[in-house]
Task: structure prediction
Amino acid sequence: MTSETSGTRRALVVRGGWEGHQPVAITELFLPFLRARGFDIRISDTLGVYADAELLDATDLVVQCWTSGELTQEQSAGLAAAVRAGTGLAGWHGGIVDSFRGDVGYQLVTGGQFLMHPPGFSDHTVTLAEEHSGHPVIAGLTDFRVHTEKYWLATDPLIDVLATTEFTADEERARPVTMPAVWTRHWGAGRVFVSAIGHKPDDFDVPEVRTLTERGLLWASR
Result:
């Protein structure tokens, strides 16, 4: 684990798992932003930090980019307890909703689980939720287009959906579906931010994607 001191709040970046989601390259995109906002950043390439109650208690924001993998019972309980106590959790794409598939407790914290995506990348619209237009993560933004994977997810009814994508009816699905793509939630005293967008670094070249992700990190932080 490495540490960089730059401010008064503490962020723990936990990255690893499946390399196809480029956990190092993409998390590096956001480190300058966090430093500029006054965060002391620690980086971990092991899930063992989730069993360190003292570390998590002193952490204001966990940024997770870890696809697949498994948590031990102690690690899962440690992360859940930290969020309930006020530590923020944030992430994007498979690094947060295709993690630790067999861990229901983890999925209850994040509020969603990746199930599938159509083959390859597609051009599609991300529609912002009018009922949450004043939410600090999306305030002032408008609907936008992306060229990336489009996630089909199982989600929790207690999430606040800030943006959605559309799936048309096909030979498997009898009717069109509006699918959550960006959401926030409260879990105990903690805040959680999830975006399904972010398979590849250039997804964040879309200004709206970059902006809502940066805002989501700040929103989730204690």
In short: The chain has a mean pLDDT of 96. The longest strand covers residues 177-187. Residues 24 and 168 are 34 Å apart (CA to CA).
